[in-house]
Write the structure tokens for this entry.
Amino acid sequence: MPELPEVEVTRLSFAPAISGANILNVQVGKPLRWPLSCDPDTLKGRQVLRVRRRGKYLLLDLSLGILLIHLGMSGSLTFGKQTPVAGKHDHFDLFTDHGLLRLHDPRRFGAVVYVSNELDALAVKLLGRLGVEPLEDSFDPQVFALGLKKKHAPVKQVLLAGELVVGVGNIYASEALFLAGIRPTTNSPASSTCLTGA
């Protein structure tokens, strides 16, 4: 599954090129994890203002509304001027006057969802419980340690939940716990001090 670093690299790979683009057409393939939640034709003519990341979600801010993209287990995004015919595992195409943004997802655990704003019920459901971003200045190791002390579950499970800090997947959780010398099944209060330096 793409974790925070991979999702951020994906964002950086197309954000400058698609920002300011006008949507010409939207094609939706086989059903993904969640439905788009709007008629694809209603997105035509809207402008992509910017691309942000929240945890493992990419947010395409449009002139009206937001597209939330999650890559799931096997998803990837490509952006380019070429518009090749969609393949078997290409499930979402966003045609713009700057190029084509395509979601390729063999296992179909990814999703592209339209929400009117971040207060939309679906946006709150998907983004509302996410913790702080580990790469931003707002991340405070002491606050993180206090949060770990309040959770009474295996530390790896707490890290993967994304409520204290976002974007930590299986690989990075395992690596951080290994570096800190903490067993993944250890109860999180017992590991709160050791993990903040990992």
